[in-house]
């Protein structure tokens, strides 16, 4: 167990979040409606913030719920946001909503991931994307970033691997920058070290002026083309639900739509 004395000070954590958001003390004080002097005292440890002030500052800094609990613990308060297993009875409404989206998107691929990209649920269409992947990469908890970029995963079948790889790595970099999550940072370092295609410039082409496509070889070798959307629970006040993302892949042309319907009829 980590000794209380080893925990980061709440003022240090607040300062780190403020700097991550590229805000000065004065900027944050003005946004939060508190004095810059009091905020300075909180960051230096000269003043202990109330839980209400901590949550107010965290709201202004857009701190994720998991890390808001960390701020409260660092200040000696109890966490404010519950964290349940997705299997808990209280999470049934969340599970039902996820399944409704997955089923409604069939036969096109859709999947649910947690904050570190571990696969939690998927519909039938995802099997078309994962066809031929090393079964070890699909063993729970399968990680979708590893699965997409590993040479024994989807990477050999992705026709625009340089473009898609750059897109995924940029998403991960943004997540790391916004969350400060150590697990995400380690995942980014791992998958960024996977080899890219020869001559990879890592940028989107002219055809991607609207959205970066996923161009992947189908089970019969034909090219399937998708664009994707991400859905989150925008009003979540529970940690697990707030960290869920549903990624839905839409056919980018009629040939892809027809192929998916034929495969999964």
Automatic annotation (TrEMBL):
Q: Which Pfam families does this chain map to? A: HTH_3, MLTR_LBD
Q: Give a GO molecular function annotation for the protein.
A: DNA binding
User: HTH cro/C1-type domain spans which residues?
Assistant: 14-68
- Domain of life from the UniProt record: Bacteria
Q: Which PANTHER family match?
A: BLL4672 PROTEIN-RELATED (PTHR35010), BLL5781 PROTEIN (PTHR35010:SF4)
Protein name stated in the entry: HTH cro/C1-type domain-containing protein
């Amino acid at each position: 167990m980590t000794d209380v004395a080893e925990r980061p000070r709440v003022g240090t954590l607040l300062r780190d979040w403020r700097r991550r958001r590229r805000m000065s003390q004065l900027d944050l004080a003005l946004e939060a409606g508190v004095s810059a002097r009091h905020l300075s005292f909180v960051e230096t440890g000269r003043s202990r913030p109330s839980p209400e002030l901590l949550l107010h500052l965290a709201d202004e800094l857009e701190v994720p719920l998991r890390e808001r609990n960390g701020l409260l613990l660092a200040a000696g308060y109890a966490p404010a946001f519950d964290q349940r297993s997705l299997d808990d009875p209280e999470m049934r409404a969340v599970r039902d909503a996820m399944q409704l989206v997955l089923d409604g998107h069939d036969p096109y691929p859709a999947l649910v991931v947690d904050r570190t990209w571990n696969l939690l649920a998927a519909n039938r269409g995802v099997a078309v994307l994962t066809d031929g992947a090393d079964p070890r990469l699909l063993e729970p908890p399968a990680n979708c970033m590893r699965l997409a970029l590993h040479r024994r995963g989807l990477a050999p079948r992705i026709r625009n691997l340089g473009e898609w790889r750059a897109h995924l790595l940029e998403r991960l970099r943004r997540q790391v920058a916004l969350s400060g999550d150590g697990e995400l940072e380690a995942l980014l370092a791992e998958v960024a070290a996977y080899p890219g295609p020869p001559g990879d410039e890592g940028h989107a082409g002219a055809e991607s002026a609207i959205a970066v496509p996923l161009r992947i070889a189908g089970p019969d070798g034909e090219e399937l083309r998708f664009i994707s959307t991400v859905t989150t629970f925008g009003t979540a006040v529970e940690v697990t639900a707030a960290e869920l993302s549903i990624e839905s892949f839409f056919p980018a042309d009629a040939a892809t739509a027809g192929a998916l319907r034929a495969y999964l009829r």
